[in-house]
């Protein structure tokens, strides 16, 4: 194994920060005129069935009470030196039912206050318009994104946000992990029909509706907020062949295509040939209007993505066991370790995916989710409660070193926001014990706890990384034998 190349250099103005989502952090699900979202009836995340109404065991109903504690939390982000904070706006806080004629002023005013705090601390907002929280009414009355009418509802919502906040927010993301729709249709697309009862035609038509809505929002932003930068957001998943066989390499190409099509459409404005072949072979005829085709030509300014793990693929059905906790399928890579939740840890995969996306799309890239979910232990050191999370520091350090390598490769990277920069409720399992943050929140899976915030060891570590614009990683990298 060869040492990492030194020095690591991050560009001036690199946007260091963290990321959260409204449904996992805000709480106050029934306050401020907010309507219900699909998350309010998902007490076990994607691992369990939905309920007919919110239930007390759904930790997201209170989450970490950021709705009332946003000023305190943003002050902690500022203490770390955040240059950017990615957060989402809850659609049902602005349009409680999703199809309302007028927005909820109380909801809009809440996000005004959040932006006020960010401006006070000099933190750039990065806003996700729709992050896994379709209004529940749209799911129940329209079957979510299977219905073309959602394009218009989303358009009204996006226009409202651009008109209200367009002069205050430079960076926008249209949908979170838009390529997860086929795998988690209720959470990602508000589709109430059980997944096993959905046809390929319905799923791919819903995918088309979201892509059109995303492109239409991009067009509206350029009209209403011409200084804004609009990005798509995809779940990245580098894929390795399980063996050197050509058949496994072909399986990798097929898996890659299924994931990359979303970015291809967002950056090129048309459906690629390999995707049209998929539709033909599945017997799907998408309902695409001339207006849809025109809308899709409104391509994004940058591509953002989440990165947590890589997968392997094989053509051998006998080796097709899926990785634990991975909603996107794939086969566990026998050469890699895994987290407590079965997500394989692969820092070099981040460099690979950065190079792949840059070579393919030639658009600036933004890493807007990356982090390690782990069970943290609160301890007392020198009279202060903290978490000695050296495992998280090691994970983030190794991944950031690979970001530096990709930048040295010539990849244009705008910034990096760690996922769950403060402990939040997990989307996949709806647990609080799956912690990602630099800040420990005293709340447990049974709902107990004081909600007090405590700085973890990684809090000080990340502050130094930001203060030095990544230079603090150099000594750590030199001391650790990392593969280039």
Automatic annotation (TrEMBL):
Coiled coil: none annotated. GO terms for molecular function: hydrolase activity, acting on glycosyl bonds. Its EC number is 3.2.1.-. InterPro entries: GH, GH_1_N_CS, Glyco_hydro_1, Glyco_hydro_1_AS. Keywords: Glycosidase, Hydrolase. The active site is at 369 (nucleophile). It holds the Pfam family Glyco_hydro_1. It is an enzyme of class 3 (hydrolase). Gene3D superfamilies: Glycosidases (3.20.20.80). Belongs to the glycosyl hydrolase 1 family. PANTHER family: 6-PHOSPHO-BETA-GLUCOSIDASE ASCB-RELATED (PTHR10353:SF122), GLYCOSYL HYDROLASE (PTHR10353). This is Glycoside hydrolase family 1 protein. It comes from Microbacterium invictum.
């Amino acid at each position: 194994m060869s040492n990492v190349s030194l020095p690591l250099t991050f560009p001036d103005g690199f946007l260091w920060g963290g990321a959260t989502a409204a449904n996992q952090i805000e709480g106050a699900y029934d306050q401020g005129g907010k309507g219900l979202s699909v998350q309010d009836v998902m007490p076990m995340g994607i691992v369990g069935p939905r309920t007919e109404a919110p239930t007390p065991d759904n930790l997201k109903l209170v989450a970490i009470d950021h709705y009332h504690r946003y000023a305190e939390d943003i002050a902690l982000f500022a203490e770390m030196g955040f240059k950017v904070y990615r957060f989402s706006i809850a659609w049902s806080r602005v349009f409680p039912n999703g199809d309302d004629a007028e927005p909820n002023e109380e909801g809009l005013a809440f996000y005004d206050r959040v932006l006020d705090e960010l401006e006070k601390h000099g933190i750039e907002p990065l806003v996700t318009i729709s992050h896994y929280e379709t209004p529940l009414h749209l799911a129940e009355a329209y079957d979510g994104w299977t219905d073309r009418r959602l394009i218009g509802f989303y358009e009204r919502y996006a226009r409202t946000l651009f008109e209200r906040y367009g002069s205050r927010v430079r960076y926008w993301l249209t949908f979170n992990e838009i390529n997860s729709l086929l795998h988690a249709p209720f959470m990602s697309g508000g589709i109430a029909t059980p997944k096993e009862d959905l046809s390929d035609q319905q799923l791919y038509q819903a995918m088309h509706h979201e892509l059109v809505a995303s492109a239409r929002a991009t067009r509206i932003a350029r009209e209403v907020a011409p200084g804004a930068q609009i990005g798509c957001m995809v779940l990245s998943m580098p894929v390795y062949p399980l063996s050197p066989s050509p058949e496994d390499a072909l399986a990798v190409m097929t898996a890659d295509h299924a994931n990359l099509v979303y970015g291809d459409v967002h950056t090129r404005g048309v459906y690629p040939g390999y995707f049209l072949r998929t539709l033909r072979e599945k017997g799907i005829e998408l309902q695409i209007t001339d207006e849809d085709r025109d809308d899709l030509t409104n391509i994004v300014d940058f591509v953002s993505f989440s990165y947590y793990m890589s997968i392997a693929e094989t053509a051998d059905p006998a080796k097709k066991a899926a990785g634990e906790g991975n909603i996107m399928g794939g086969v566990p890579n026998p050469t890699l370790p895994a987290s407590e939740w079965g997500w394989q840890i692969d820092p070099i995969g981040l460099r690979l995916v950065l190079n792949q996306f840059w070579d393919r799309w030639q658009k600036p890239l933004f890493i807007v989710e990356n982090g390690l979910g782990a069970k943290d232990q609160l301890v007392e050191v020198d009279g202060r409660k903290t978490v000695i999370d050296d495992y998280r520091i090691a994970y983030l350090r190794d991944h950031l070193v690979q970001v530096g390598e990709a930048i040295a490769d010539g990849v244009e990277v705008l910034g990096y926001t760690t996922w769950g920069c403060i402990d939040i409720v997990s989307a996949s399992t709806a647990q609080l014990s799956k912690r990602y943050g630099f800040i420990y929140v005293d709340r447990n899976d049974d709902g107990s706890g004081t909600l007090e915030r405590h700085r973890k060891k990684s809090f000080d570590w990340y502050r130094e990384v930001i203060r030095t614009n990544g230079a603090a990683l150099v000594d750590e990298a030199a001391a650790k034998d990392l593969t280039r």
